[in-house]
Design goal:
By secondary structure, the protein is mainly α. The protein has 18 helices and two strands. The radius of gyration is 25 Å and the shape is globular.
Length: 469
């Protein structure tokens, strides 16, 4: 096709001519219209739908502040802690950039957890949005890896010992565990080699993968369209212009919506950065203001708060708890065999796998530490299977039985309880509560194919419910 330069009147504004010149060579306007300007979204969005835009904002904030921090940071075990102190004390506005980055990390996870909560409530992971959910889950894994690698970089006491504990967890894997831990550390202990490779992953490798996944997440979203609080597919009701009757252009309607949400977020974010950047030791642990010392172990080693729900699952898996898990696995297999419509061969395979797992849980075969790592990983990975576990007749919680809301509320309480318990020193009572919450956490997902389809569902309307205001 021959190249055609768009023509403009002689008195056309310079900006219009410049944009036309670019559009003739790069589809800038088309990209804007496809991805936002003329992207039609359901008109009944509520405040739960602000967190996707906030996540994008914080991602940009983290990248920009991270670039400025790397200008002065030294990835060297002898210089790392001092370089962070230099940033805080000597670099003009360095303290602000560092606090924005550290607060941004916690803000990122708060926003992502709320974003996932919205998906859970309104069934945003259901057909045809399974791939969107999987891309989102991959983004969540990348964020966890990014936060873990970045946690070591200040080279403080909690950074050092937290990394030591987490890396040593891989040593519980049979056969390959010790070699895997050695490969991750690059040395027999957390050292300068570990710091260098963690820095490379935190600054280059993971952000590149993260940006690619975010792009894939958005492309998949705009291909099938956004969900809505009613869980109705708006594309099933098209107007004469070919656009859904219950949708409106994202710009300017949701641009204003997002700008308002961003303004509120920045007010809260600024208040934390300027007045409580440590957030009582949850955002920045007090032990991390001490340089790393391999000869002095902190009294209580715990990861940052956004890892603690899954860390609690790991810590709750004690030797005594293994017997409870054996009974739970056996009971689940019996339940599946009696209640599931799966083919007999599949049921037999599940029973055989469960038998192997139960034998492996015996103290003389595999210790509780290994199974703690398995449950730790399983508590994260199980989220990826949510689209295939939920068999509810209605996507949105609005039209599900009222007792479903109670189940979701109990799940949220269990998750928050695990998060809190992970920040506290273990006691017998706290361990017991964590074990109960762990059983409920896994039961929520593993029993979802049955409980999500039970009860009396409300009638789902054919059009979205919208009340202008």
């Amino acid at each position: 096709m021959a190249f055609v330069e768009k023509q403009f009147p002689a008195d056309a504004p310079i900006a219009e001519k410049a944009l036309g010149w670019v559009d003739s060579r790069f589809p800038l306007t088309k990209l804007w219209n496809d991805q936002w300007g003329q992207y039609y979204a359901p008109k009944n969005f509520n405040w739960w739908y602000i967190f996707g835009s906030l996540a994008m904002l914080v991602l940009v904030l983290q990248i920009v502040t991270g670039i400025f921090l790397t200008m002065h940071y030294k990835p060297d075990a002898n210089l790392a802690f001092g370089s962070v102190e230099y940033i805080m004390r000597e670099v003009p506005w360095g303290w602000l950039v560092r606090y924005m980055h550290s607060t941004g990390a916690s803000a990122f996870f708060i926003i992502v957890y709320l974003h996932m909560t919205r998906a859970l409530m309104y069934g945003s992971y259901r057909k045809p949005r399974e791939l969107i959910w999987l891309f989102g889950f991959a983004i969540f894994l990348c964020l966890m890896a990014e936060a873990f690698f970045g946690y070591l970089l200040p080279w403080g006491q909690m950074s050092y010992w937290g990394a030591q504990v987490i890396v040593n967890l891989f040593g519980a894997i049979p056969l390959i565990g010790p070699d895997l831990s050695l490969w991750i550390r690059g040395d027999y202990v957390v050292s300068d080699a570990t710091l260098n490779r963690f820095f490379a992953f935190h600054v280059i490798a993971i952000p590149l993968v993260l940006l690619g996944l975010v792009a894939a997440h958005l492309i998949a979203l705009h291909e099938v369209g956004s969900s809505n609080p009613d869980g109705i597919e708006v594309k099933e009701n098209l107007g004469p212009d070919g656009h859904p009757l219950d949708s409106i252009p994202s710009h300017p309607y949701y641009s204003v919506h997002d700008i308002f949400g961003v303004s509120l977020f920045l007010i809260v974010f600024s208040a934390v950065v300027f007045f409580a950047p440590e957030m009582g030791g949850y955002f920045l642990e007090y032990n991390n203001f001490l340089p790393a010392d391999s000869l002095t172990t902190p009294l209580h080693i715990a990861p940052t708060w956004y890892f603690t729900p899954f860390y609690s699952v790991l810590r709750a898996t004690t030797a005594d708890f293994m017997y409870v898990l054996m009974v739970a696995v056996a009971a689940y297999v019996v339940f599946v065999w009696l209640k599931s419509s799966l083919p007999s061969k599949v049921k037999a395979a599940i029973a055989a796998g469960a038998l192997v797992a139960i034998v492996g849980m015996l103290p003389s075969v595999l210790d509780a530490k290994f199974w703690g790592v398995v449950l730790f990983g399983g508590s994260v990975v199980i989220l990826a299977f949510l689209p295939w576990l939920d068999h509810s007749k209605a996507k949105s919680i609005r039209y599900r039985p009222d007792w479903h809301k109670v189940v979701y509320a109990l799940f949220g309480i269990a998750f928050l309880a695990l998060g809190y318990l992970g920040t506290q020193p273990p006691t017998d009572g706290r361990t017991l509560v964590a074990q109960i919450c762990t059983l409920f956490y896994f039961s929520f997902f593993l029993l979802m194919p049955w409980w999500s389809a039970m009860g009396t569902f409300k009638t789902v309307p054919s059009r979205v419910t919208f009340h202008p205001h």
